[in-house]
Structures are given as structure tokens and as C-alpha cells.
């Protein structure tokens, strides 16, 4: 019986978002006496106090919480050493514009996004997801950008032609129309902006 | 409660008595309904009495209408498939002019294959549901660990999917004011430009969807130039237009495929 | 020495936010042989397999992760603020078809289910349970779909091979082909039309 209670307490502490206090524990496990809960906690504390454990049960901020052992901090830092590209919305939007409209100049990207993109372009260049394709043959000869092989790898794409089109995604939202579809495909194009929420 | 016609009340009678219509709408689709009818009639799936099953199927659709449920198009498509099979079974085997050598397959065969396949995945779905579901049966640590707060933890794979990329692009386009968006392509576009564009697209790929040619621009000039360009190169027999199914996508392919490309196009 | 390595591995798995694969472990702990790591993992798995533990070490989505024991779900629900994931029959059917038949196109899914699946596909994409794998090399180049790591995590699956074996309808003459697949101790569900929700 105690074995089971201990195990329930263990999983509750493990899953809880914040340190779990005895009070909270008692309110979750109403069917048990506080003394039982305290005993289960004591046992757990002893279990996790064994040498060679990688997880510690600590009393913190009025409750109990599992933490990694401080002496392993160096190893844990290595977890974040090789961080893959993590995308914020603005990076993703910029990348999407370049992917779908390449070759494209910075001015064109900024026109579409309505904001300055210099910083994001630099980051994307550093991450090798985009590259400079050359200069555009217009006054000012602005740089033009396109996506890289690494971009394709990131999205597991064979080539640029495998990029899904906007239409293909939008078609998912609408059930196929049986009756009147056949006329001019122009309707599909103008309908594009309409569906935006 | 509407009383279903007495005949159908018999047909749909099961352990639940005539309270069967509680189940109305519980079918996932025409295949699900058909499987139900086959089980109910306790018939061999490999020897479906099409006439009886079709009648019951249609009666069910009637019931759905009576209950003011939308009969989805998929159910109607199946109804016509059933009727077609039924009529083919009634017809004497025709002597085919083109391919007399092949044995006529049982008209029910494809339907049976689909039903068996469907049943397999229906059961697989039930098995998925009883797996320990994260967030329902099993939980992971959700606390923030203070010692690592400032560090972003790493995933094995980057946290971005192709779908998100497309969605991001859609967001950009959706946020554009329509008026200004039109100005983007306001430069003069000629039919010759579009002919060149299309032909160079066809250098890269074997086929291009008709719609795709219109996806880039939104100005009237652009659309018209593109459309006329397609007509022009068709007339010049430089490209072929094909459509696999009615109302399906129209495909534009080069009229003459390069020998070098031929192996790519093989199926 | 092994004691320490085991404890480092334990805390790494504990801290990582997603299942930690052996590959990733090996790249973090370069100074150790893979065989050592594997041994440490084996020991840990045995430790956590003891009766009366509230935390389980599970192999899921190609890695290792600590999870609460499913038998405690009722208690843990009292903690959790988020609603548990719930699936309708149509989502589950679509997921099952994609899981077993990937890579698969929308048309193929719809042929198998007999109904339009666009809306469901979009929802599953948004939930990251499926992803676009690219385009199929057939005329029209339709998008092809597959399941994600999140799908494996959600259903507590080690990998795709540990999906429950597909059962044939009725007792067909030929014996089941995938006899050696029996990793998951899941009793086959003999559901009638059991959508009872």
C-alpha cells in the first residue's frame, strides 16, 4: 500500500509544474492521511539521496521538486551546444518569402513584410539557409537572395519544385467542389487572399 | 421523432431496437456504413448481395434526409457506385471489341478490396486509441528547471515543418493590402515574356499545372498575358494540354520530350 | 565510474525536453564509448523497471524519456491544467492510414476512407502529428504525407515498426505476415462499431 502511495507521490512531484507542497499533495490525495503522505515523502527523499542518482528530490519554495544534480551542470550545458535553427515568426516569414519568390532583393522582401529585414537576412545567411545569388540588373544593382541546399535539407526537400504551393495547402481547407469549378482558373487566384484569417 | 418507414425499421433493427437512428451520422463515411450493413446482414464480404445491400444503403440515405442530416457528397458517390455495380451484375457479359482476352472481373471486386482495406484501418484506429496517450495516460516533466532556464534546450530535429513555412508565406500574403499588392507587378508584361517563362519552366520540369502559371501575379494584365501565352504555344504545338479527370487539374507538358529526359518520365 | 556515467545519463534524459536518442547522447558524451552508454541505459531501464516506481523510463520516438506511469493517470489529471488530447474517429482513421501507409497522398487516403479528408489533414498538420514529406513523382506531383516525431511521442511509440500489427478482416486463409512484430503488449481490440464516445 505504501509502495503504491509512494509511487503516486513520486509521479505527482515529477509532473507538477511547480514545487509540490504537502498541502497541495494532501488536497490531491484526499483519501490519504497527512501522516501517510509525509511518510511517503520521507521514503522518497531517502531513495533519491542514494549516491549515483542523476536526479535529486529537493525541498524548494515550500514544496518538493525533482532537479538534476548540480554536479552534472557541465554535461547538461552540452545539451544546448549544437542548437539547430529555431524559428521565430519573422524569420520563418522571411525565409518563406525568399523560398517562394526567389530570386528576390532585400527591398522586395521588405516591401512584402512591411518591416526592415536586415538583421534576419544576416542570421539566415549565417545559418546558411539563404545565399546571395548575385546582383539584380536594375539601377543600384541590389543583391538578390535565394535558398540553399541546407534549406532543402532542413525541410527534407528534394528540390525547390517540391515546395508545396500555397494553393495546395488552401485546398485542404475546402472540400472539393463538384458543380461549378471548371470555368477559368482565374477564380482560384483571386480567391487566394480572401481565405486569409 | 420521425418514424422511419416500417420496412427500414426492420432493416435497421438491431439490439438497440428501432432506436437505431441514435446512430445516424455516426458513420465515418460510405465504406463504414457498408461494412455495418454487411455485418448486420451477416453476409460473406466476398459475396455481397449487392441488390439487398444497395437497397438498404439507399434507405439509409433516405433516413438521413428525413432527419434533415446533410447527406455528404461522398455518400452519394457511393450510392451511384453501388447502382452501377448492381446494373453490371444484371447485364449479360458483353463481348468486348478491344480486349476480348481478359476475363471480366467481378464488378464487386474493387469494392470488396476497399471494404477489407478500410476495415483494417478502422481497427488500427481503435488500437491507436488505446495506446498510452501523452497528456491523457502518461505525462512528462513540465517544470522549468531553474539551472537551465536561460538555455534553450535542443531537439534532435529542428522544430519547423514544411507546413509552417507555407503557412508563414500565406500569412505574409494575407496581411498585404490588396491595393498595394497589385502594384508589385505593375510593370508591363508581354505575352512573349510569359511564353518564355512557361517554356523555361518546362525545361526544368516535365509538367506544369495550368493554375500554377497564374499563381505568381495578380494583375489583370499579367493574367491575360499568361492566358494568351498558353493559347499561343498550344496553337504552335509547342505544348500539350492534358486533364486526367473532369474538373481536375489541367497539365501542360512539352509537346516533344527530350530523349535525355525520357527516363525521368517513366512510370 | 559506471555509477557516475549512469547518473549523468539519468540527468541528461531528465533535463532534455524531448526523448534523448543514443546518437545524441553519444555526441554529448563524446568521451565515452557507445557500448558504455548502452550499458548505462540498460542499467537505468532496469532501475526504473522496479515495482513501486512512479516514474517510468520509456523508449519513445527513437529516444529515451521519463514519463509518469499510465496507472497513475487519474491522479495526475488532477494536476494538469491542459485538457487531455482527444481524437474523433475520423482523425484516428486518417492518422492510422497515414501511419501505416506513409508516404501517402491525400487522394490515396480519401480512396481508403471513402470521404474527403482535407480538413482533417489540415488539423493534423497544425497539430504537427503529420508532415508534408514532399511531392510524389507522378503526374500532378501531389503532396505526400507522413507522421512526425510528435506522433510517436503522443502515442508512446518507440518507432513506426512498433505500431500495432494490422489485423486482417475475419480469419483469412493465409497466416499473418508480420509475425515477429509483437513488441507492443497491446491486446488487440475487438471492437464492433465501438465508437462509443
Summary keywords:
heterotrimer, A: 197 residues, three-stranded antiparallel sheet, two-stranded antiparallel ribbon, elongated, B: 267 residues, 3 strands, flat, cytoplasm (chains A, C), SMC-Scp complex subunit ScpB (chains A, C), ScpB_csome_segregation (chains A, C)
What's this model, at a glance?
Chain A has 197 residues and is α+β, with helices and mostly antiparallel strands.
Q: Helicity range of the residues of chain A?
A: 40-55%
Tell me about the biggest sheet of chain A?
A: 3 strands, antiparallel
Number of helical runs of chain A?
10
CA gyration radius of chain B, whole angstroms: 28 Å
Alpha-carbon distance between the termini of chain A? Answer: 55 Å
| Strand-residue proportion of chain B | under 5%
Order of helices and strands of chain A: HHHEEHHEHHEEHHH
From the spread of the alpha carbons, the general shape of chain A counts as elongated
Question: Can you characterise this structure?
Answer:
The complex is a heterotrimer, with two copies of chain A (197 residues) and one copy of chain B (267 residues). Helices cover 48% and strands 13% of the residues of chain A. Chain A is built from ten helices and five strands, in the order αααββααβααββααα. In chain A, the strands form two sheets. Chain A has a three-stranded antiparallel β-sheet. A two-stranded antiparallel ribbon of chain A has the order 1-2. The longest helix of chain A is centred in the N-terminal third of the chain and has 15 residues, at 34-48. With 197 residues, chain A is α+β, with helices and mostly antiparallel strands. Helix content of chain B is 49%, strand content 5%. A three-stranded antiparallel β-sheet of chain B has the order 1-3-2, covered by helices on one side. In chain B, helix 2 packs across helix 5 (109-129) and helix 8 crosses helix 9. Mean pLDDT of chain B is 73; it is low at 1-23, 149-157, 180-186 and 258-267. Chains B and C meet through helix 2, helix 4 and helix 5 of B and strand 2, helix 5, helix 6 and helix 8 of C.
Amino acid at each position: 500500500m505504501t509502495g503504491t502511495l509512494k509511487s503516486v507521490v513520486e509521479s505527482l512531484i515529477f509532473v507538477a509544474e511547480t514545487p509540490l507542497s504537502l498541502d497541495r499533495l494532501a488536497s490531491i490525495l484526499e483519501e490519504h492521511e497527512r501522516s501517510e503522505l509525509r511518510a511517503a515523502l520521507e521514503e522518497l527523499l531517502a531513495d533519491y539521496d542514494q549516491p549515483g542518482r542523476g536526479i535529486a528530490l529537493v525541498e524548494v519554495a515550500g514544496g518538493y521538486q525533482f532537479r538534476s544534480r548540480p554536479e552534472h551542470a557541465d554535461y547538461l550545458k552540452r545539451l544546448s551546444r549544437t542548437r539547430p535553427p529555431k524559428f521565430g515568426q519573422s524569420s520563418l516569414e522571411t525565409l518563406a518569402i525568399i523560398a517562394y519568390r526567389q530570386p528576390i532583393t532585400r527591398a522586395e522582401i521588405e516591401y512584402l513584410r512591411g518591416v526592415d529585414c536586415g538583421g534576419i537576412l544576416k542570421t539566415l545567411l549565417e545559418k546558411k539557409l539563404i545565399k546571395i545569388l548575385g546582383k539584380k540588373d536594375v539601377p543600384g544593382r541590389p543583391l538578390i537572395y535565394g535558398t540553399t541546399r541546407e534549406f532543402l535539407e532542413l525541410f527534407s526537400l528534394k528540390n525547390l519544385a517540391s515546395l508545396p504551393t500555397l494553393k495546395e495547402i488552401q485546398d485542404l481547407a475546402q472540400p472539393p467542389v463538384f458543380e461549378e469549378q471548371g470555368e477559368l482558373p482565374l477564380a482560384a487566384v483571386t480567391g487566394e487572399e480572401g481565405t486569409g484569417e | 421523432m420521425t418514424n422511419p418507414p416500417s420496412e427500414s425499421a426492420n432493416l435497421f433493427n438491431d439490439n438497440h431496437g428501432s432506436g437505431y437512428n441514435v446512430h445516424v451520422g455516426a458513420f465515418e463515411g460510405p465504406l463504414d456504413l457498408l461494412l455495418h450493413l454487411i455485418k448486420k446482414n451477416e453476409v460473406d464480404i466476398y459475396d455481397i448481395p449487392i441488390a439487398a445491400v444497395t437497397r438498404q444503403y439507399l434507405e439509409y440515405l433516405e433516413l438521413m434526409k428525413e432527419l434533415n442530416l446533410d447527406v455528404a457528397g461522398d455518400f452519394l458517390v457511393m450510392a451511384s457506385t453501388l447502382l452501377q455495380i448492381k446494373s453490371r451484375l444484371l447485364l449479360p457479359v458483353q463481348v468486348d471489341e478491344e480486349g476480348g482476352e481478359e476475363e471480366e472481373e467481378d464488378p464487386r471486386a474493387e469494392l470488396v478490396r476497399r471494404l477489407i482495406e478500410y476495415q483494417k484501418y478502422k481497427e488500427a484506429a481503435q488500437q491507436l486509441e488505446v495506446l498510452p496517450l501523452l497528456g491523457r495516460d502518461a505525462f512528462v516533466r513540465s517544470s522549468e528547471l531553474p539551472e537551465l532556464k536561460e538555455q534553450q534546450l535542443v531537439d534532435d530535429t529542428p522544430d519547423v515543418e514544411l507546413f509552417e513555412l507555407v503557412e508563414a508565406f500565406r500569412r505574409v500574403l494575407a496581411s498585404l493590402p490588396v491595393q498595394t499588392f497589385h502594384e508589385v507587378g505593375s510593370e508591363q508584361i508581354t505575352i512573349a515574356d510569359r511564353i518564355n517563362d512557361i517554356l523555361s519552366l518546362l525545361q526544368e520540369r516535365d509538367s506544369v499545372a495550368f493554375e500554377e502559371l497564374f499563381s505568381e501575379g495578380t494583375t489583370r494584365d499579367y493574367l491575360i498575358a499568361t492566358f494568351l501565352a498558353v493559347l499561343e504555344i498550344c496553337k504552335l504545338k509547342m505544348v500539350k494540354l492534358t486533364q486526367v479527370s473532369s474538373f481536375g487539374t489541367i497539365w501542360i507538358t512539352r509537346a516533344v520530350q527530350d530523349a535525355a529526359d525520357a527516363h525521368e518520365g517513366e512510370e
